[in-house]
Amino acid sequence: MLYLIPVPIAENALHTLPEYVLETVRRLDYFVVERAKTARAFVKSAGPLKTMQELFFEEIPQEGGLGEAEAFFKKAVAAGHDVGLLSEAGCPGVADPGAALVALAHTMGVPVKPLVGPSSILLALMASGMNGQHFTFHGYLPAKRPELGPALRRIEAMAKRDNATQLFIETPYRSGMVLEVALEVLQPNTTFGVMQDLTGENEIILVKRVHEWRKKPPVLGKMPGVFLVG
Fold first, then answer.
1. Is 152:186 a contact under the CB 8 Å cutoff?
2. CATH class of the domain comprising 2-114
3. What are the start and end residues of each CATH 3.30.950.10 domain in the chain?
4. Which residues pair with 2 in a beta bridge?
5. What is the pTM of this model?
6. Fewest beta carbons within 10 Å, which of 31, 86, 176, 202?
């Protein structure tokens, strides 16, 4: 079985995972992960039944493909072991390279079991008050400021044309710049949402029209963000 294991999306938020997820983590010996250091810390916090030295972790390469993780997975399954897939945070396979391992499991006929847990994308959509029936997730927008403005205008046009909420994510140190550019290029009546540290102690959930944002823009923390255009 390949278990798709959610990871908390905020610090000190182990309580956001159901007990049955933690029970699964505790009994597994083999993990394919986005980042080994983070995965080890999470598994340790769950209280595994074996020592950390007895557990096996294999990273999925950042540059694409499965790399050594493919052979690791095939060997573990052939030996009769269940395997857990861990994202850096949130749900594996969503905005995450782990989707390639899930596809491999289907090809091999290995059962796939998704477990319940927090997703920053769905939490942001739930909290936005925007259209939750029709939406598009864009991952990361262009990193450079000159390309970011046109990208924001494109998804704004999509939101209005299709009546569909547009979501994207950003790294901690670029969230402030994203807000600045958005307030420069988006139309005054466009709805813009900013979510940071969802489920965490410094949670920010703000949704306003652009003309309202411009009157008093917030100071965003250096935390990962989910942004919404509606």
1. yes
2. alpha beta
3. 120-229
4. 83, 112
5. 0.91
6. 202
